[in-house]
């Protein structure tokens, strides 16, 4: 055990700000520290450390932003800084999270085997666009990723993307799903709501979604489907999370005739009189999930979505887009992604898969499928209970105890190699 504890592991990520990858990075850091001496490295700490692990954090102190020349200079400084850190620490393994960190990991050289952790779809990420996006997809990933000693994907369906889309060698790839602190999430979900919050949940069935208010999460079209549902019956929609699209989403909801409560706007009492509730960031989001009727997840692309898994742990029936990647693996694991996009709801073993809300030509029809599926589920209490129980059972496959041993095994293999 003494030799294992002395083995040094270096973890790299661009920043420690808000995000699913940062949460996974934190979880990995904490768990690896049970076995190894872990040091975290970041490009800079400008966004703070929102998920402190207690392990040492080294900032390369290289900011982002600027023009093309500044970005190139910063890139070179990051590579040089990581090389120096590797020489000083002499780690057995260097594990990077997120693409920018992957490039720096691969190009820095120095001591330590190189492992990349890929958190999401590269082919379908709409943020990879423009000249830089073309460079990433057509030059950097194909040219550099095969330099890694191993590449871990958080979802099985990312592997064929990397092989067929970018020419990554299959032998370098393996999947280790994200893990969840199931007991901790269950405990936090039982925390009581305030009296005002409880009154909202008691007034009508509640659909809830959680996550950043961003392009990826694609909450805008969900509002249209919900508005049609609201015209038919009493129902409420709760958003837990914040992001750069907050103003766009509240404006869209009001344009649809929905009454909107937004926690960040001028103080107004929280009452059951609204249709849509934007609650913002919450220290304990799980207590807003458990008492809801169902969880809705309209993402355009994912990796292995933490928010979806957390809702399942809370015992909610879930309705998710069949987006790349993750939801199908979680909700219908015995099936493969269809050759053509879903146009109707699909009943998975552990939840409902629905059409993506991204194609203008079919958007109205796809939103109608969402509206009809939400209405059918709200009208079927036994089905709500059945799917909620199945969701909870499925998440036992992704406990820390079941998943993280795979990471330890990989690190041991790389260390010995």
UniProtKB/TrEMBL annotation:
One of its GO terms (molecular function) is glycosyltransferase activity. Transmembrane segments: none annotated. Pfam families: Glyco_trans_1_4, Glyco_transf_4. Its EC number is 2.4.-.-. Keywords: Glycosyltransferase, Transferase. It is an enzyme of class 2 (transferase). The keyword Mitochondrion does not apply. Residues 19-181 form the Glycosyltransferase subfamily 4-like N-terminal domain. This is Glycosyltransferase. It comes from Hymenobacter segetis.
